[in-house]
C-alpha cells in the first residue's frame, strides 16, 4: 500500500503555510525516492494545530502539527509515514482533546478527506439523507425538519421547518432555494470551512430543501472574500451534476434540482436575506421591507427558501438519522448542535461543534484555553459585529438562543471573539458604529444617519466633552436604531455599543489621560 | 497598466462579456465581475454598453456598480494588499499591523503607491479569525501576521 499523506487545503491552513509544507513534503518524497499519495483535505478546525498533517498508517491516522516547512526533513527522519514519534506528533486526530470533546454532526466529515471526492463522501454516510428524501412526500420531509427543532443558524434562529412549510404551501410556477453564504461576521468561519472541507453536504442539504418545497433551482451566494470556497463549491457542483446528484433526475428520482454558485461583491449588508436577494437579482443590495416574506415573494418575486449554509448542511444528518436523533441534543428550544467558532485573542482557536448548553466560560476558558497573549480575558464578543460584549461576570450564560437574549445578547452565527485586558471598550463601541456607517445600505434613516452620529457622539465622549449628556445621547440613539431600523444591521449595532457601556462603564468615564495617550 | 485602452476597445470587449452572460438569471453581478476581471476595474465606458445589453438605464447600472465595495472605478496597483480590520483581528493587534504597513509603504487605506506597485485596502473579515491578524495579498491568504511577515510582504510588493 502506498502511504497517504493528508495536507489541508483549507484557507485557514493555507494562511498558516500549508502550501509551503505540501511543497516541502513533495520535494522530500522525490528526493528520497518514496512513492506516496498526497491528499489535500479540508481542515478539522483546530486552527492552533494547523497546518496539521496526517498520515494513514496500519493503525489508523496519525496527526502532526503545527508543521512548519523546516520540520519536514526531520519528520521523514523520524519515520512519520508509519506514525513515528516527533516533536510535532499529536497521535490519532480524533483523540486530540479539542476534537475528541466535540459532538460532530454537521461537521462529521469536514477535514477528513478530499472534499471533492464523492466516493469518500459516500463512504462516510453521505447522500443517505437525500436517498431517504427522494422516497418521501414533500410534506413528510418538511415535517421531519420541523420536528428536529432545527433553527436558522445564520443568526435569527427562525425554525427552518416552518420556513420550508410556507414555501411548500405557496403556489408558484418556479421556486428557489437560496443559500446565504455571505458569512461576513467577524469570528465566523463555519460556512467557509464546510464549503471548503465538505461541500457535498451543502449540496445534499439544498437538494433536500428543493425536493421538500418543490423548488427546482438553487443559488449559493458566497462572499467574494472567500475565493477558495467559491472554487471548491464550483467544482463540487460540477462533480455532483456528473454523478446525477443534481440535474433533471436527482438520484434517479423524478425530482429536478440544479444549482449555481454566485459571488458577492464586498457588501456586508448582503448577508441580510432580503438584501442578498436583491443582489442576486442584480440590484443594489438594499434591504427590502417585510412583508412580503421571501418565502412568499422572494427571488424574482417567487417563493424562496433562504437559509444559512449551516442550516442547510445540518439537514442531511436529520434526514439520515431522523428528527428524534437530532433533537436529542441541546437544551430548551435550542435543539441539536451548534458549530461554535472560537476566535480572536485565544490560545486554542478553531471550530468546536457541540450540543447547545455549554456555558460561555467553559468555551472560552476550558476549550479555548484563555487568551493567546496570556493576559486576563476582559471581554468576549458573541455573534459577530452585531453581537454584545460579555464580561467575565456573565460567563455562566449557557449557549442557547433564549439564554443569550435574556442577557441582552445574541448567539448570531456562533462566533466568539476573545479580547484581553488591553481592549478599550469605548474604541470597540466606536468601531461598531463606524462599521455600521461603512456598511449601511442607506435605505433607513436610523441606520444610515444614526451610525454616523453615533461615531461623532462617541468621539465627543472620548474627548471628555459633556460626558453625561453624550452618554445619554448615545443610549437614546441606540434605542432609536434598535427599534427604528429595517434590518439587523442598524437594529443590532446597539448590542455591541450598549453592552460595552453597560458592562465596562469605566472605559467610558472621562479620562483626560486617554486623550493624551492617543 | 500605463497603456490606455481605446473606448471602442472597452465597448467591444464589454459587449462580448454581456453577450456571454446575459442569459443568466440576474446577470448584472456576474457581468460586473467579468468586466473587472477583464480590465482590472469597471471603466465608465462599459456602463452604457451593459445598460444597453440588459435593457436597464445607465443610472441603474451606475447605482449597482457604486453600491459594492469590490468594483473599482480606476485600476489598482500591481499588487492588492487587503488587511483585515474586523474585531477578531483587532483583538490581535490589527491596528498596529495596519499602521506598520502604512508606514512601510507610505500610503493609507484606499491608496496606491506612486509607482503603482501596490494598493492597500481594509477588509472586514476574511474568515481567518482563528489565525489573526490576517491579510490577503493578490487573493492569497496570510495569517498570524508578525513583524517578520509584514516586512517580508512589504519588500515583496515593492520589488
Word description of this protein:
Chain B: Its cofactor is [2Fe-2S] cluster. Chain B: This is Formate dehydrogenase subunit gamma. Chain B: Pfam families: 2Fe-2S_thioredx. The complex is a heterodimer of chains A (518) and B (159). In chain A, 58% of the residues are buried. Chain A is globular. Chain A is built from 22 helices and 16 strands. Chain A has four domains: 4-100, Glutaredoxin (3-Layer(aba) Sandwich), CATH 3.40.30.10; 126-327, Rossmann fold; 333-420, Ubiquitin-like (UB roll), CATH 3.10.20; 425-517, NADH-ubiquinone oxidoreductase 51kDa subunit, iron-sulphur binding domain (de novo design (two linked rop proteins)), CATH 1.20.1440. Chain A has a five-stranded mixed sheet, with no helix packed on it. Chain A has a five-stranded mixed sheet with strand order 13-12-16-14-15. A four-stranded parallel sheet of chain A has the order 8-7-6-9, with helices on both faces. With 518 residues, chain A is of the alpha/beta class. The longest helix of chain A has 18 residues, at 445-462. By secondary structure, chain B is an alpha+beta fold. Chain B has two domains: 7-67; 79-158, Glutaredoxin (3-Layer(aba) Sandwich). Chain B is built from seven helices and five strands. Chain B has a five-stranded mixed sheet. In chain B, helix 3 (46-54) crosses helix 4. The model of chain B has no long low-confidence stretch (mean pLDDT 95). Chains A and B meet through helix 1, strand 8, strand 12, strand 16 and helix 17 of A and helix 2, helix 4, helix 5 and strand 5 of B.
SSE layout:
The complex is a heterodimer of chains A (518) and B (159).
Chain A: E1 4-6, H1 11-15, H2 18-32, E2 37-39, E3 53-57, E4 60-64, H3 72-77, E5 89-91, H4 97-100, H5 118-123, H6 128-134, H7 138-148, H8 160-169, E6 176-181, H9 190-197, H10 199-213, E7 217-222, H11 227-242, E8 258-263, H12 273-280, E9 304-308, H13 309-321, H14 323-327, E10 330-331, E11 334-335, E12 337-344, E13 350-355, H15 360-367, E14 377-382, E15 389-391, H16 401-406, E16 415-420, H17 425-439, H18 445-462, H19 467-484, H20 488-492, H21 494-503, H22 512-517
Parallel strand pairs in A: 1-2, 6-7, 6-9, 7-8, 12-16
Antiparallel strand pairs in A: 1-3, 3-4, 4-5, 10-11, 12-13, 14-15, 14-16
Helix pairs in contact in A: 6-10, 6-13, 7-8, 7-10, 9-10, 9-11, 10-13, 17-18, 17-21, 18-19, 19-21
Chain B: H1 7-21, H2 28-39, H3 46-54, H4 58-67, E1 79-84, H5 87-90, H6 94-105, E2 111-112, E3 118-123, E4 135-137, E5 140-142, H7 147-158
Parallel strand pairs in B: 1-3
Antiparallel strand pairs in B: 1-4, 2-3, 4-5
Cofactor (chain B): [2Fe-2S] cluster
Family (chain B): Belongs to the complex I 24 kDa subunit family.
Binding site for [2Fe-2S] cluster (chain B): 84, 89, 125, 129
